[in-house]
Amino acid sequence: MSLKLYCDLISQPSRTLYILLKTAKYNFEPKYVKLAKAEHYSEEFTTQVNRMQRVPVIDHNGFLLTESVAIVKYLAREKIIPESLYPVDSKQQARVDEFLEWHHIGLRLHCTTYFRVKYMDPLFGKKMEEDQLAGYERRMVQALDVFDKKWLGQGTEFVVGNKVTVADLFAATELEQPRMAGYDPKEHYPAIATWAKKVQAHFNPHYDEAHVILNKIVKKQQSANL
């Protein structure tokens, strides 16, 4: 069997799948697609890999699949990832799915948008008024408040219970993204900081491996602001 993962580790869901496959000790081939160089818009990628021009994508013995949540569910059915991370039990699995459904609009939309307007857009010469930028930050903070109080504030150790699942990994990689734009959720939310440390420890060394590029960008940004 062969599995290829088309990804860019600057992408949150790409990092999630990379870490997940590494944790599962599954033999896969990373196929890096450089988003900064618009390789996902190339004719080859569009026609042969993903017509939607996005990563991540998997190629599992010729079966191409896009969308990170769909990929996780497929990998679980194929027994590629541990049941502990995506439970077989119907109710436990439903709780994980409940978070993954909320995550797209509830968390990812706001963290990703803030990262894009604060960090990415200026790289391409796009400028935004301070009051507009403040609005994006406010919406992201509101999303973080919900995550902090209504997901982590339910008396459990992790997002959907007392065991790590893919829900935690999706959330953790997402909350790394605004760090590149100068906002680290862990510095503002003690509960998030405690939870994130546990998630990182669970998935290490692969978690740190997947975030090498991101951490270099963060360090470079911090040095530039000194």
Explain the overall architecture.
It is found in: Cytoplasm. Keywords: Cytoplasm. This protein has 2 domains: 3-77, Glutaredoxin (3-Layer(aba) Sandwich), CATH 3.40.30; 90-224, Glutathione S-transferase Yfyf (Class Pi), Chain A, domain 2 (Up-down Bundle). 58% of the residues lie in helices and 8% in strands. It contains 10 helices and 4 strands, in the order βαβαββαααααααα. It has helices spanning 12-23, 43-48, 68-77, 90-123, 130-151, 166-176, 185-188, 190-203, 206-210, 212-224, and strands at 3-7, 29-32, 57-60, 63-66. The protein has a 4-stranded mixed beta sheet, with helices on one face. β3 and β4 (63-66) form a beta hairpin. The chain is globular, with a radius of gyration of 17 Å.
> How many separate helices?
10
CATH architecture annotation name of the largest domain = Up-down Bundle
Low-confidence stretches: none
Shape: globular
The largest β sheet comes out as: 4 strands, mixed
The SSE string, one letter per element, is EHEHEEHHHHHHHH
Q: CATH topology of the largest domain, which one? A: Glutathione S-transferase Yfyf (Class Pi), Chain A, domain 2
CATH class placement of the largest domain? Mainly Alpha
Strand share of the residues? 5-15%
Strand order within the widest beta sheet = 2-1-3-4
Radius of gyration: 17 Å
Q: Tell me the domain tally.
A: 2
Structural class category: alpha+beta
